[in-house]
Amino acid sequence: MSAIFKARAAALRSLIPPPRLRLSEWIEENIRLPESVAASPGPIRLTPVQRGIADAISDPAIERVTLVKPVRLGLSTLITATIASYVANEPAPILALLPTESDARDFVVSDIEPIFDASPILRGLLSAEADESGRSTLLSRRFPAGSLKIVAAKSPRNLRRHNVRILLIDEADAMESGPEGSPITLAERRTLSFGNRKIIMGSTPIYEETSHVLRGYRESDQRIFELRCPSCGHFQQILWRNIQWPEGQPERAYFVCEAAGCIVEERQKAEMVAAGRWRATRPEVKGHAGFRCNVLVSHLANAAWGKVAVEFLSAKRNVDQLQTWTNTLMAEGWREAAEEVDENELAARAEPFGLNAIPADALIVTGGVDVQRDRLEIVFVGHGRDQLFILANAVIWGSPAEDTTWAELDELLRSTWSHPNGGTLRVDAAAVDAGDGEHMDRVISFCQPRFARKIVAIKGVSGTRPAIAASVTKGSRLFIVGVDGEKSRLIAKLSRGQGIRFSQDLEPRYFEEVASERVVVRYTRGVPTRLWERKPGLRAECLDATIYAIAVRGLISVNLDRRAEEVASAGQALNPTPAVIRSNWLNR
């Protein structure tokens, strides 16, 4: 009988499931990174920063996880590993929400598929081949007892048909609200039927006042990653204000302890991070874990304090680069220095240069054309290495329906101007507004034959968009200009008095119109949105034309060093150095 009981006990023990692994442990045991994803392929080894986030995701007591993330910390790979864990261990309806369809496709092709193929436990779990119902596609996969769908936030109608238990939202701050409301809110509603739902939202923040991820973090238990000072033992965050360096030697940057002023060298960072910890600053909040840290805790070589300091010194010279540095490395939202500028202050900065006296640092000339019913408003901008020069504004009076109006514009855009270093400059590119709807066909018909000269038809569109990009509409040579971003960068530079100089040849109304709009934050369906609002009674044609002229620079691939050499060599050709013939008599 004892043998029977022993056999029975052994059989029952075999039915006991293995102990539940924390997500961090499961990832390190099972996930393999291929060469296409990681610089160091092979089994993934999580950092203490990643491990704390992973374990919160797998904690059944936590419903929401919010990640305010920088780059260079591997958090996007962690999201892919999280999907893999649910597919392998807890099959369920899973939805991943990304800003655009191209982001969604890239996520599948560059992250999900390579990692699933490289990890033996995952290989074959997600197949792109259609099942019997024909439901599997690149962005919609079915697996036993579950499904994975990757949806673009720009297509909110795709969210209506899904009920999901696991929702992952990546780069939330790049998502915009549409007529149906916030895609993030729409996606979260698809989880309401599941009592054990999990909502994970991560993003690099963009603007402080409208950031989705920062708003989510404020509602969480607000965890921060603290490191222990190797000298005094004090636990603290590493913030940018704690990083210092010897004068003129940013590559030798070090950390200064806030408690006792201890100096900590870069070589000690790995030890500090290994002993680091996540601490909730609002422990009274339950069920919502929020994580926030910057790149200064990253162990990667390109995130060394010295390299970050060098990047900061380079970025601080340009507002655009400084915002990118702040968003992507410090994981902080950007605050505008001012929401509006004063036209009188701008006019007072005018300098004695223009199209007939181009500054030596201006090496490229672009034009922006705003189309009105009775005229064309043109602004010419000179581009240097670090500065913009507003060279002139002009008006061509006449209806856009008349050929003579466009003939005058063509003649103007063919103009050439002498450069002080010699040679000449001409219009390298020009953007003509076709967005009013009334004259779009006429603008496109003018621009298409001149496409080789980079004279292009454009349409300004609000929201988070690239400065300039070709329209996806087939058969159209229309370019889309992200006017909101360009206005933000322009106003930031103007308010700081940095990077933009004005010609004294500009008409007084130019400064009034450039300062005619301001940023306001309006709530739409409960979501804060940054909007550009016109000041009462003012016009904005010069502002629009300036934005177009700045944006079209993105279509020019001229090397500025080579352009400077060409201009200088042309000047030498026009003014050759006289040959000196020495007389033999002088050598006697």
Q: In total, how many domains does the architecture comprise?
A: 3
**Could you tell me the strand content as a percent range?**
15-25%
Distance between the termini: 130 Å
Q: What is the alpha-carbon Rg in Å?
A: 29 Å
Number of strands: 26
Summarize the structure in words.
This protein folds into three domains: 16-222 and 281-293, Rossmann fold (3-Layer(aba) Sandwich), CATH 3.40.50; 226-276 and 299-318, no CATH class; 343-567, Nucleotidyltransferase, domain 5 (2-Layer Sandwich), CATH 3.30.420. Strand 9 (223-228) and strand 10 (235-236) form a beta hairpin. 30% of the residues lie in helices and 23% in strands. It is of the alpha/beta class. Mean pLDDT is 86; it is low at 576-588.
Record keyword descriptors for this entry.
about 600 residues, Rossmann fold, Nucleotidyltransferase, domain 5, 3 domains, 10-stranded mixed sheet, 17 helices, disordered C terminus
In short:
This protein is an alpha/beta fold and 588 residues long. It is built from 17 helices and 26 strands.
Q: What's the SSE blueprint?
A:
Layout (H helix, E strand, L loop, with lengths): L1 H14 L7 H8 L1 E2 L8 E2 L4 H10 L6 E5 L6 H15 L3 E6 L2 H18 L21 E4 L2 E7 L13 E5 L12 H7 L8 E6 L8 H7 L4 E6 L6 E2 L6 E2 L9 E3 L6 E2 L4 H6 L2 E4 L7 E5 L12 H11 L3 H10 L14 H5 L16 E8 L3 E9 L4 E10 L5 H11 L2 E3 L5 E10 L6 H8 L7 E7 L6 E3 L7 E5 H14 L3 E3 L5 H7 L2 E8 L2 E8 L6 H11 L8 H15 L14
Parallel strand pairs: 3-8, 3-15, 4-6, 4-7, 7-8, 9-15, 16-20, 18-24, 20-21, 21-23
Antiparallel strand pairs: 1-2, 5-6, 9-10, 9-14, 11-12, 12-13, 16-17, 17-18, 19-20, 22-23, 25-26
Helix pairs in contact: 4-5, 9-10, 14-16, 15-16
